[in-house]
Amino acid sequence: MSKHQDAPRPEALYLRILHARIQTGNIRVPAFQRGFVWEEKQILEVLESVYRGFPIGSLLLWRVGKKELKVDRSDDLPLPELEEHYPTSYILDGLQRLTTLYAAFHENGDRRFQLMFDLREEQFISIASSDDILESGIRLFDIFDPRAMLGAQKRLLELNDGATLIDASLRLQAAFQNYILPTVTIDGREVEEVVEIFERVNSTGTKLSTVDFMRAVTWSDDFDLTTEIDNMSMAAQDLGFEVPDETFVKLLGIGAGLAPTSESLIGLKAMSATDLQKAQTAAANGLEQALKLLLTEKILCYDYVPYEGQLLVVVAAFLEEPSLSARYQQQLISWLRQTSLVESLRGKPDHYVQRAINSTITALRSNEDIPIVRMSLSAEDLMERRFTVRKAVSAALVTFFAHNTPRDLKTGAIIETEIFMRNFESSHFGVVLTRDSVSMALGKDMSSARVLANTFIVTDESRSSLAHNPKEVLNKATKDALDSQFVSQAALDALNSGDNINFLKERADCLLKGLAAFTS
Questions:
Q1: Which of 20, 92, 286, 443 is 20 to 30 Å from 168 at the Cα level?
Q2: Contacting residues for 244 by C-beta, under 8 A, at least 6 apart
Q3: Cα–Cα distance, 263 to 267 (Å, whole number)
Q4: Rounded Cα gap, residues 306 and 290, in angstroms
Q5: CA 346 to chain centre
């Protein structure tokens, strides 16, 4: 069957038409939207944009003929609560804007929307109550209510500048009555396709994900994905890891025996609350074991896990075999190291990650070794590639340093792993050669001095000294400190003689030898 279907339908709708659709239940808020979260400043800013005729973006709606998602009935959403009927349209993107542009004009008792417009100053302001009216002001609640508008204008006409204020009130009314908001409606699509559309939509520059959709399609009285994600997140944070919500959804899918892909995760929709809870419990246990394995690898935060797929594979291994042997735990560690060094998951889709999961599980079931792509870094790679925080090769190199117990080049004291592995920040790393020296040595213009072979673990004490007089620091450093940071005598001799290219080569060679043993 052809994948082609009619494109989403664009429309330009007046605010009063959108208001009517909300009041009749023709536009519904799905539960995943989590209510209204805008602050006063954001509310006033969008109202000012409409008043001035500025575009505020479009709305994305999904028209359905039957119940597909749980409808939000939270108390903090200032929209009418109506019985559900179908067909209707779920609002997928633009809830905060649409809520503002409805609640600001329909009295609902919500103090966030006790608003008025000062006709003299031409500005929107918040008021304490609907009765707290400025002399030159008009309540926004009155703009779409003809009788209330006439009463407000009668009051204004009694003022000295009443005629001018009446004209201003008419301009205000016209600005909102004539404002057209673009909407895009997805029609005749299955949940799987809507999830894909939802993933690809950008709202004010922020990529949307499937997490909220999964919250909606798996919700029941006995299973709330929001609560389960929060529980998993807190457990991970207790171990020092800030894991994204989307990853938890994929872990739930893996716990349910599904692939971590959008089209596969939709299968969660058909599962019972009991089965979802079993999958969640399994995923949570697998995640705990995986994170504890990372801690043994001296990885103390998620910044040093450059690919989400790495965590998914390790969790899947523990789900397959909760009592994973020391042999396979070591193989997983080697796989993690190699995967980062060769960047084998870079830019790879979730389908590729699923293949890695399958090959790992196959190895476990057949008692064979886990497939590992061996290191292919060269000395030239270490000399020319930039050290970049939170990137795969750099993360692997720092983890390698952590296992070698680095010492401070100035004081000789051991640099505690907790200092630089708890967060991956540039302040933990310094250089010996300047950018100009690196550029001259390599014969090309380098954007930074921080190439892999020129990067060292530093402390507050040594960072400044290295920057001002690196030769003195290295010449006074103890042998233990030099060895711990992979500075050979040959590299030191090259540095002292001004032979910067050989300094980089010697240190790169020294690092490569250590990395070969580290990843074996």
A1: 20
A2: 308
A3: 8
A4: 15
A5: 17
What is the rounded radius of gyration, in angstroms, for the C-alpha atoms of the chain? 30
Please state whether beta strands 88-93 and 429-431 pair in parallel, antiparallel, or not at all (unpaired).
Answer: unpaired
Distance CA 28, CA 141 (A): 22
**Nearest alpha-carbon partner for 332 in 299, 381, 285, 301:** 299
The three-class DSSP label of residue 348 is coil
Domains in the chain: boundaries: 1-201, 211-366, 379-518
Start-end of H helices in 408-499: 417-421, 435-442, 460-468, 470-476, 479-484, 489-496
Query: pLDDT (tens digit, 9 = 90+) per residue, 279-331?
Result: 999 999 999 999 999 999 999 999 999 999 999 999 999 999 999 999 999 99
Q: Which residues pair with 182 in a beta bridge?
A: 12
User: Which token pair is 45?
Assistant: 């800013």
Q: How far is CA 133 from CA 116, 162, 372, in A?
A: 8, 15, 72
User: What are the residues whose beta carbons fall under 8 Å from the beta carbon of 13, sequence distance 6 or more?
Assistant: 180, 181, 182, 183
**Conformation bin of residue 204: beta by default, left when phi > 0, alpha when psi is -120 to 50:** left
Burial class, 435, CB count within 10 angstroms (exposed 0-12 / middle 13-18 / buried 19+): middle
In which element (H, E) is residue 89 found? strand 88-93
- The answer to whether the CB of 294 falls within 8 A of the CB of 305 is yes
pLDDT band at 207 (very low <50, low <70, confident <90, very high): very low
> What's the gap between Cα 205 and its chain centre?
12
- Round to whole Å and give the CA distance between 509 and 340: 19
- Residue type present at position 456: F
Binned at pLDDT 50, 70 and 90, residue 141 comes out as very high
Q: Looking up tokens 């998602």, which residue turns up? A: 69
Looking only at the bridges linking them, the beta strands covering 27-28 and 9-14 are: unpaired
End-to-end, the C-alpha distance of the chain in Å comes to 49
| CB 429, CB 455: distance < 8 Å | yes
Q: Report the alpha-carbon distance of residue 84 to residue 73 in Å, rounded.
A: 11
Q: What does the alpha-carbon distance between residue 331 and residue 311 come to, in Å, rounded to a whole number?
A: 14
Does the pTM surpass 0.85? The reply is: no
Establish how many alpha carbons lie within 13 A of residue 279's alpha carbon, considering only the half-sphere containing its beta carbon: 24
* Backbone phi and psi for residue 49, each to the nearest 5 degrees, phi listed first: -60, -45
Q: Which residues sit opposite 117 in a β-bridge?
A: 124, 138
Helix H, strand E, coil C: the string for 235-251 is: HHHHCCCCCCHHHHHHH
